Amino acid sequence: MSESVTIENQKSESSRIYTLYYSFFLIPFMIAIFGAVFFLLFRFITYETHDASELLNQVKIGSKTKRWQSAYELSKVLNNPETVPLDMGFKDQMISAYKHSINDDPLVRAYLAIAMGATGDEFYSEELVNGINDEARESRLAAIQAVGMVKSKEAIEDLIMIIERSDYQDERLAATMSLGFIGDDRSVPILNQLLEDEEPNIRWDAAIALAKMGEITSAPIIENLMDRSYLTTFPELDPKEINKVILTAIETSSLIEDNRFEPRLVMLAESDESLKVRDAAIKTLKKSYNRII
Q1: Which letter does DSSP use for residue 60 in this model?
Q2: Domain range for residue 26?
Q3: How far is it, in rounded angstroms, from Cα 132 to Cα 250?
Q4: In this model, does residue 180 exceed pLDDT 80?
Q5: End-to-end Cα distance, the chain
Q6: Are 264 and 231 in contact (CB under 8 A)?
């Protein structure tokens, strides 16, 4: 009887050990293994390369969805100067891909235009100028932006024509900004006209573009852009955007000399609600007016 009880106790103890083994080691171990496999599979499926040449190859041979996604990723990669290929082979392939994308999804061509623009390389100028005349709005707008990014002087006449004739405000705004990036004196007359444009963003960007070229005609608008009370009259601007506009205006004010800027900068430096704005105004006063607040 005693021996039978001992055997039963041993079985019970053995069963308990197995239960503990399964509960605290084997089951968690299996869960960890399956979790690791699932994670690796997910990473494999969602893997995105950051190699510009490989992304460009995917643009050329990938599926319809993959092509525009790869073009988008390429535009991000080429936005970093350290990851921009400098060899002519890559540049020629970019041009070739852009030419062939004319009959593709407009998003592919649009992101390729932005990718070329992101390099800042004037090598792409001629092809991007051709893209300004695209029928698809997405790719046309991207080309308008990109010619400014590569500072294409060949695009000036086309950009002026867009400002004068386009029915789309986003195209007119992009053309205005691109003229500012290019900074050619031929654009001064049209930019001065835009200081009276009915679209506020176009007026503001025309003033900033003129200030970059040292044109004093931009001063009244730059002064307004440093006025928080003025900017709050535009309901489409949230507080963060207002701060960004003021900071841009402060930076731009240092590009031209006008007595009206100093008192406005002093006011911002002493009492503006944003510490970043105060700091920027203080630094500009010291740099441009040798005045310490």
Answers
A1: H
A2: 10-47
A3: 32
A4: yes
A5: 99
A6: no
For 192, how many CA atoms within 13 A lie in the half-sphere containing its CB? 10
- Which one, of 280, 188, 179, lies nearest residue 225 by Cα? 280
* HSE toward the beta carbon, residue 131, CA cutoff 13 A: 37
d(CA 140, CA 86): 26
Angle, helices 52-61/88-100, rounded to nearest 10 degrees: 30
Reported confidence tier of residue 33, pLDDT bands at 50, 70, 90 = low
- Structural domain contains residue 68: no
Phi, psi of 152 (to 5 degrees): -80, 105
Coil/strand/helix, residue 22: helix
Alpha carbon distance 55, 49 (integer Å): 7
Residues 246-270, mean pLDDT to the nearest whole number: 95
Asked whether residue 179 carries a pLDDT value surpassing 50, the answer given is: yes
Q: How many domains does the chain have?
A: 2
Encode 45-55: b = buried (16+ Cβ within 10 Å), e = exposed: eeeeeeebeeb
Average confidence (pLDDT) over 177-183: 97
Is the confidence at residue 217, as pLDDT, over 80?
yes
**255 assigned to some structural domain:** yes
What whole-number distance in Å separates Cα of residue 193 and Cα of residue 203? 9
Residue 261: pLDDT band (50, 70, 90) is very high
pLDDT number for residue 86 = 87
Whether residue 190 is contained in a domain is answered as: no
Per-residue pLDDT, 293:
82
Mean pLDDT rounded to a whole number for the chain: 87
Contact between 178 and 190 under an 8 Å Cβ cutoff? The reply is no
